[in-house]
Amino acid sequence: MAQNHNEFDEVHWDDYSNEPPDQDPGTDTNEWQQDLASSPPASFQSHSDNDIHHEQYTPQPMIISVQDPQKIDSSFVSYLIKTKTSLEAFSSPEPKPVRRRFQDFVWLYDALSNELPACIIPRLPDKYRMKYLKGDRFEPDFIEKRRIGLQWFLDRIANHPLLQVSVHVRIFLESRDFAKDKLVPNQQTNQLVNHRLISSLSDALLRTFAKVRKPEDRFVQMKEALDKLQDNLDVVDRLFARIGKRQLDLGDDYQDFSTSIRGLSVFEAKEGTSQNEIDLKLRKFAETAEAYATTLAQMSKNENLNYHGHIRELLSYCQAAKDQLKERDQKQVDFEEMTLYLQQLTQDRERLLHPGQSIPGSSLHLGEYVADQVYKMKGQNLTQTRRDRLSCIQIKLKELEQEVTVANDVHNMFSDRMVHEYAIFDQIRVKEMKQNLLDYVDRRVDFYKQGMDTWASVLPILESLDDID
Amino acid sequence: MTTANSYYTPCSCNIHRLLTSDDSFIYITGSQKQSDAAGKAYVAYNIRLGSMESKHRYSEFESLCKALTKLHPTVIVPPIPEKHSIMDYAALQTRVKDDIAMVEKRKRMLQTFLNRVAKHPVLNHDHVFHRFLESGVPWSDVLHSPPLSIMPKNTMQMIVNNDILAARGNSNHILSSHLIPIPSATYILNNPDPQFEESEQFTYRVANYMSNNLEKSQRKVIRRLELANDYAELGAVYNGFSLNEENEVANAIEKIGQAVDASYSNMGEMVTMLEGDFAEPIQEYAQFAHTIKQVLKFRHMKHAQVEMIETSLASKKEHMQELSDMEGEARRLEEAIAREHTIGQNAVNVDDINNGTVDADGNPISAPNGFDPVQSNPYARPPTSPTTSSPSARRASISSPARRRSRYAWSGPMQMVNAVSHTIQGLIDVDPVATRRNQIGKTKDAINILEEALDITQLDLEGISKDVQADLDRFQTEKISDLKDMLLAFAKAHIRYCQKNLESWQEVKDDIDKIPVQF
């Protein structure tokens, strides 16, 4: 009875207009279908792991920027959100900038998780580390960190072909009456996806504890790749924590050194009063050391904020991807468990229809057999009981068959979606890494250039240190 | 530099020639572990000047440094590396003797020491220094032969200025006389030289500053080798990272790993440069400050010595005056008696007057502490009582409040001791006149010695002051020149570091740019 999973490769999104009878058709679903219809359909037939069509993963142009944090009423911080996009659903290619606070981001995250449960939704900053618990929420360093994290969050949404077209995203980015617009009824766009098993069936399944029976290679590989990426990022993260601190300490040391030289210049001013302004030159040297210290501290701080910060955010994004893999696994588990149950019930029916015969491929359903014997002994009307039970099972079976179909659809939908999600995730993270590596290198290059200039500027002064007037 | 030291033996030895030749840089070419007679291990350093080679261990360098300091107290002798500095322990955290880095550091600093000595206009003529550099001359020989073997114990007993020595023949040991005071370190000058006072205070402050502040903070900068090690680790991490990526991303990350690796070696290089060209000179200058303190102290003490000799001379002269006064009195009275030819009731024993037992009018004076004053204490004076109105007594009592002071400065026990000794002396001494004459003679001799010593030390002090000032000036010039070299080295090390890193990071950019991005 378990349908071969491959047949569902033929299924297109549009088939979901066949609602399971018990569910309410909602306009929401239609809207979602429309949205999806407007984006390039997924074609599964030619699908293979190595042959990913890039245009499927290419988002429409969209650039969002998070800027200008402002303290509002001493109770929260608001950020200025600016959008530029060619998506037609928007009121204009450059809608008027809006202000949003962290809570609004939380709303967006929740809305997207509900709307697109098969997608990898990027995590909000500070979910990985509860930094806001320590110290002041309004401290500038913290606010900057958060702003950058929110920027990455929106960048990922902007670069994701499904997320970027979500109505919630549009509301977030351009709504001028956000408090009202966000109360649009919670878009249960995909009933299928949020489908919860009918309770009568769920108790027959040990849902939470089952593992995938037939793990698929491609998902196993995805998980391994994600694990490796996370491990690597983790090592870099920890090392950078150490390096960051040491670099800051080094900056302080240069500062101290500069102070000492200044002190020395005071002595020299006394001694060589007639001469060549040794004290002035020493002070120039001290200034140079100080300038270098400042540049170093600046570079270090930026590196920490941007590069190191990104490593941490990327780790969080990886975790989101892994969690999504687990979700997908869960759908497979649901399907497999339900299929098993279906098998069992079918065998039960067979036994009822053909009592006494051994059913190929079934284990003795002891309960049924004992019940039979008891009835026999009690001399009850076996046939009547059997008919009752039979009709009961028939009903169950019918329901179950539908459920299995749904579960299979969900499973397939999640799996197919996962392949895309993973590709999108990889694409986004490579783009991010490239940008961040470029910034990392640029920052260092600038620092060394400035360092060279700073120290070179003091050379002629030092050369003249022992000049006699 | 005005003159050389009185212990300076001019030589035209090989070494002197080498030092004045073109090839006059002294190298420490290597080091070896050796064992001494007792079997204990030590490190011997090989020294080469031109074609001359010699070998010495650290303790001999130390000994040389001490010898030069003693021979030339007006010269700022360059420092040798400290025996064991705490910083070395902390930074290296290894057994000091065996540590290669420690030996290398000593090599560098000892070499610098020898060359500073060789460049010094006074020290480079020193034959002891020459013999140190001579091959095959064991240091113990040098220690046990002149001039080191004949030097006076205390530098205050030395005559520094050679010209003085030449002018006075062999009066070298005059200052060793017990009459010549050696000032204590706490002596405060009555008439200090303002310029040197200022120099002393200044040097004191600089020495403090140097040792507390500068050395500490620049050491911290250099100790960031730890950061360099972190970079090495990061480079390895990036390499590992790249293995799990593909194609262009892998390549880019690998290249970043290489750039970070380069950072590590560049930083290591910078630290080494800074250690040799910057940190070590700073240590030297901290030590120099201490040496200068010592040189200034020597001059200060010489000045003190001059003052003390002056004081001593003045007091001796006063005493001389008293004695000759007494002599004069005695003669006049004798003459008077001779004229009178009578021993009248009023005649008194002149000597009793002189002894202070009878006043000028013949009235007995009681000794202040109840003993019978048999003989006089030359330093004692009859107490000024209103009754003594005779001119000589008055005159005697007016002069020398210092004398009175010195008399009353003798406390009770001293008076007793003196009285006792004089009593005993009186028992032995039959002829007070002869004693007095004797004392006059001795005092005259003492005055002569003191006068000569005063002459010598005053002249010497002039010379010393000039020499010290000159060496301070020379030092200041050298210091500025060294400071310039150090700071230049510091700046250049950083420029080089930044430049090399700049190059390696710039290269990486291309590889990152190559990463393909779909949108």
Labels describing this entry:
heterodimer, A: about 475 residues, mainly alpha, PX Domain, three-stranded antiparallel β-sheet, about 60% helix, about 5% strand, elongated, disordered N terminus, B: about 525 residues, Substrate Binding Domain Of Dnak, Chain:A, Domain 2, 2 domains
**Oligomer type:** heterodimer
In CATH, the topology of the domain at 51-207 in chain A is named PX Domain
Mean pLDDT of chain A: 78
Strands of chain B, total number: 3
Keywords (chain A): Cytoplasm, Lipid-binding, Membrane, Transport
Biased composition (Basic and acidic residues) (chain A): 1-15
Family (chain A): Belongs to the sorting nexin family.
Main location (chain A): cytoplasm
Q: Helices, strands, pairings?
A:
The complex is a heterodimer of chains A (469) and B (519).
Chain A: H1 27-38, H2 54-57, E1 62-72, E2 76-85, E3 98-101, H3 102-115, H4 140-158, H5 167-174, H6 178-181, H7 199-202, H8 217-271, H9 278-353, H10 366-378, H11 382-463
Antiparallel strand pairs in A: 1-2, 2-3
Helix pairs in contact in A: 4-9, 8-9, 9-11
Chain B: H1 14-20, E1 26-35, E2 41-49, E3 52-57, H2 58-71, H3 86-92, H4 100-119, H5 127-133, H6 139-143, H7 162-167, H8 194-222, H9 225-243, H10 247-340, H11 350-355, H12 391-398, H13 401-409, H14 412-428, H15 432-513
Antiparallel strand pairs in B: 1-2, 2-3
Helix pairs in contact in B: 8-10, 9-10, 10-15
